[in-house]
Amino acid sequence: MQVPFGEWLPDLPDHLNPGATQAKNVYPAVNSYRPWKNITQASADALTSRCQGAAAFASDGGVVSIFAGDGTKLYKLTSNAFVDESGGVSYNTAADGYWDLMVLMHREHGH
């Protein structure tokens, strides 16, 4: 059941505010808000070294894929664990560098 709340108006005073002054752990929906689903933690030792970039992408069909990269590998989150998707390639990302995953995704899809 969806409970209707007014528009999120935290900048107005609480007294006689026609909207909501707090909206925690929710996202906007039509005439209301919906709660975020529970978040599960991936394996703590998922990447072989410090994460140097991560991003989530949604396909046209609504399937969400999450990628992360460390200094030498690219990973995809599959069944709550990061799996090496480097395809045998060893990348060389500078220690203070980061992955630009948008560029990578455009290359992979021929854009």
Please explain how this structure is put together.
It contains 1 helix and 6 strands. With 111 residues, it is mostly beta strands. It has 2 domains: 1-39, no CATH class; 54-108, no CATH class. Strand 1 and strand 2 form a beta hairpin. It is elongated and about 60 Å long. The model is unreliable at 106-111 (pLDDT under 50).
Descriptors:
111 residues, mainly beta, four-stranded antiparallel β-sheet, two-stranded antiparallel ribbon, 1 helix, 6 strands, 25% strand
Major beta sheet, strand line-up: 3-4-5-6
Task: Label the overall shape.
Answer: elongated
Order of SSEs: EEEEEEH
Largest sheet: 4 strands, antiparallel
**Percentage of residues in DSSP E strands:** 25-35%
Amount of helix: under 10%
Q: Can you tell me the number of structural domains?
A: 2
Count the DSSP helices: 1
DSSP summary, beta strand count: 6
Question: What are the SSEs and their pairings?
Answer:
Blueprint: E1 26-29, E2 32-35, E3 54-58, E4 64-69, E5 74-78, E6 81-84, H1 101-108
